[in-house]
Design brief:
This protein has 369 residues and is mainly alpha-helical. It contains 19 helices and no strands. Helix 8 runs antiparallel to helix 12 and helix 17 packs antiparallel against helix 19.
């Protein structure tokens, strides 16, 4: 009897040991998949079905769109609107500078150029991804782009590109004839820019020529033609700005670019990047100062330029070109820089009315005396 009981106890222990090992393996697998450890607090989902958190970010909006539409929205980079901002902001500078003294920028023109920026940035990204589809498959950051990943065929990309350009043409036709011709002239830059990284270490310069065309177009849309004394230094300052932020951006991919034979200013400047960026910053601030002088800007504008200088100095001083995440953060911070310039232009223009009124009062008092 004792022998039978001992055998039963032994079998029970074997069953418990086997069960414990199985549960341990299951727990390890769960932890590997991201399950919380015991004693780690997790927010309770509460009673009833789970609800996804409401998010108004661009990426969340794209992810909530109908699934067949999502690859096209990602092809336009609607999930990453920073590029649209960087294309749009030079347009707003030019429109703001063209406003009458004491007036806000033309809201109709701002909305029109905003629509155009979304469409043309989308068209530019579509062209870029069509040219670079074979390269994108070899770069970690771009391997999931819709064309490279096979989510959209080349034929459908052409059709989608045609639709974007048609809509953009509709926006352009709302402007005066001078601006229509000027805007159409930028199409060659839009098409050829993606090829520059194959033949020169300065593709960022080509991007600057393309992305800042709005600095010319915004003024002509309001005034009827370009004033070279204002538009050319503004265009030049935008090009310098693009060389700054896109060189920082290019440092994210420099290892992959070097392996597959693509060129960039990041590979050209290497460890001397901060010196080059400092030079571009000085040139940008100098050109913006010339814009202010030639357009009769006032104290708020130059105050904004001082803030822009401080922003650039902080960007460059704290930049770590060997950390892609830091490069991305510095790159996206340039939206704030562009908005500071816009704010300075608007406030400086409103200040002009105050100065004009003071001058009129002074002249009136002199006449009375």
């Amino acid at each position: 009897m004792l022998g039978a009981r001992g055998a039963a106890v032994a079998r029970g222990l074997q069953v418990l040991t086997h069960s414990w090992r199985r549960d341990s393996r299951a727990l390890a697998l769960a932890r590997a998949c991201g399950a919380p450890r015991a004693g780690h607090w997790q927010p309770s989902a509460g009673p009833g079905p789970r609800r996804s958190r409401l998010s108004l970010s661009a990426a969340a909006v794209v992810n909530s769109a109908p699934r067949p539409l999502q690859p096209y929205l990602r092809l336009m980079r609607l999930d990453k609107p920073i590029g649209t901002w960087l294309l749009y902001l030079p347009c707003t500078w030019s429109i703001g500078l063209a406003a009458e003294p004491g007036c806000f920028p033309d809201w109709y023109m701002l909305s029109l150029f905003g629509t155009g920026a979304v469409l043309m940035r989308g068209a530019g990204c579509t062209i870029n991804d069509m040219w670079d589809r074979d390269y994108d498959k070899k770069v970690i950051r771009t391997v999931n782009r819709p064309i490279a990943a096979g989510d959209i065929s080349i034929f459908r990309s052409f059709i989608f590109l045609g639709g974007q350009l048609t809509l953009a043409l509709g926006v352009l036709l709302c402007l005066n004839y001078y601006s229509i011709a000027l805007g159409a002239a930028s199409l060659l830059l839009v098409i050829t820019y993606p090829l520059m990284k194959r033949i020169t270490y300065w593709p960022q310069l080509a991007l600057g020529l393309t992305f800042n065309w709005g600095a010319l177009l915004g003024w002509s849309a309001v005034k009827g033609s370009c004033d070279p004394s204002v538009c050319l230094p503004l265009y030049f300052s935008g090009i310098m700005w693009t060389l700054i932020y896109d060189t920082i951006y290019a440092h994210q991919d420099k290892r992959d670019d070097a392996l597959i034979g693509l060129k960039s200013t990041a590979l050209r400047f290497r460890d001397n990047t901060k010196r080059w960026l400092s030079g571009f910053s000085v040139a940008m601030l100098g050109a913006l100062s010339l814009v202010g002088v030639n357009s009769g800007q006032t104290a708020p504008y130059y105050t904004a330029l001082a803030a822009v200088g401080a922003h650039l100095a902080h960007q460059i001083y704290t930049l770590d070109i060997h950390r892609p995440e830091d490069c991305w953060d510095k790159f996206t911070s340039n939206r704030t820089l562009g908005l500071i310039v816009l704010l300075g232009i608007v406030l400086g223009n409103l200040w002009k009315e105050k100065k004009t009124d003071e001058a009129k009062k002074s002249i009136g008092s002199r006449i009375e005396n």
